[in-house]
Amino acid sequence: MLGEVAAVFLKLGIIGFGGPAAHIAMMREEVVRRRRWLDDARFVDLLGMTNLIPGPNSTEMAIHLGYLRAGWPGLVLGGVCFIGPAMVIVLALACAYVAYGARPEASAALYGIKPVIIAVVVQAAWALGRTAVKGPLLGLVGGVTVVVYALGGNELVLLLAAGVAVTLTRTATIGRAALLVVPAPAVAAAAGAVSLPTLCLVFLKIGSVLYGSGYVLLAFLRSDFVERLGWLTDRQLLDAVAIGQFTPGPVFTTATFIGYVLAGWVGGVLATVAIFLPSFVFVALSQPLVPRIRRSPRAGAFLDGVNVAALALMAVVTWQLGRAAIVDVPTALLALTSLVLLLRFHVNSAWLVLAGLAAGLALGR
Questions:
Q1: Residue 171: how many CA atoms within 13 Å on its side-chain side?
Q2: Which residue has the higher pLDDT, 214 or 140?
Q3: pLDDT at residue 153 greater than cutoff 70
Q4: pTM
Q5: pLDDT above 90 for 79
Q6: Looking at residue 189, what DSSP letter applies?
Q7: Were both Cys, which of 113, 236, 257, 324 would link to 240 (CB 3.0–4.6 Å)?
């Protein structure tokens, strides 16, 4: 059974382009329709559980399914085999980026890729937002979160406050839930030498608290690595996101790229372990709770609030990064064309990234 788990998730880790929704669809095809490890009802139960715990949904599904098929060894093997191929590919690309990133060809390629990435993130935010904003209350929470985060609110406090506000309002514990937000410290830490313990702790924190799409990762990365620590610029962050989007497997391997750029091979491996480790722990702890938590009205309300706040953070960061990526008429046209192709024709984002690369090289910027 362990060999079967390894084969399935190595395959999905290699061919898994298209983001979490595509990954989960591929998993269903493999384990429900083809191999019949479980039925659709149980698969949906596991998917609901991944939405109630922090971390990347598709990776947590791989961990859940590995446990279901082969117990505790399968839990570890399923996740590692799904993450491993993307980590290796991203490390290789990060090595090339560090060695050749200053060359004109590399700059030209990234010039074309970055506006495409902005379009991909906007499309994801639009699709997820249509699902997450289920009524006026969630729309209001999302709007307040956008404003307060843009003014310097702390992302963790905003996520928690949104979840609590929606839970209290829906359960009528209080008549009107006030959204209390504590602003983040105004003074960012001065940029300095990269510390491996700090690098690990930041990614461990992100992996432990991040709800929503992998694209919400942008808000946390920018807050910590660009604004607070000053270890990355907005352009470097966009480069990292571009690599994470272009490679198969979980978008969270953006952490692998950042870790390598900041601290070499050791940093890349440690960043990967740190951001994914909480997912293994949360899945292990939540296995016995799947039937009960999924049906809890309070848990559902809290999750709705957290999800809409996470998307609000994503919207603000997309705007901020878009100003670094869309710098002239050609990049604006690339972003707009990519967005139309994504929304109207559902073109695979990997092909658009390749097209952006080709356009950047052709324009020679």
A1: 14
A2: 140
A3: yes
A4: 0.72
A5: yes
A6: P
A7: 257
pLDDT digits over 189-209, tens only? 334 578 999 999 999 999 998
Q: Which H helix or E strand runs over 264?
A: helix 254-286
- For 333-353, b where at least 16 C-beta lie within 10 A, e where not — what string? ebbebbbebbeeeeeebbebb
Pair of tokens at residue 331: 């990049």
Q: Which of 309, 313, 306, 358 is nearest to 334 (CA)?
A: 358
The size of the chain, in residues, is 365
Cα–Cα distance measured from residue 91 to residue 259, given in angstroms and rounded to the nearest whole number: 9
- Rounded to whole angstroms, the Cα distance separating 347 from 79 reads 28
Structure confidence by residue, pLDDT tens digits, 254-271: 999 999 999 999 999 999
Q: Report CA-CA distances (Å) from 236 to 68, 222, 232, 302, 333.
A: 39, 10, 6, 34, 22
pLDDT recorded at residue 64 = 94
Six-digit token pair at 201? Answer: 């702790």
- Ramachandran region of residue 325, left (φ > 0), alpha (ψ -120 to 50) or beta? alpha
Half-sphere exposure of 162 (CA within 13 A, CB side): 33
Both tokens of 15, joined, read: 């061919």
Q: What span, in angstroms and rounded, lies between the C-alpha atoms of 237 and 257? A: 10
Q: 124 CB contacts (<8 Å, ≥6 apart)?
A: 19, 213, 215
Phi, psi (deg, nearest 5) at residue 328: -160, -175
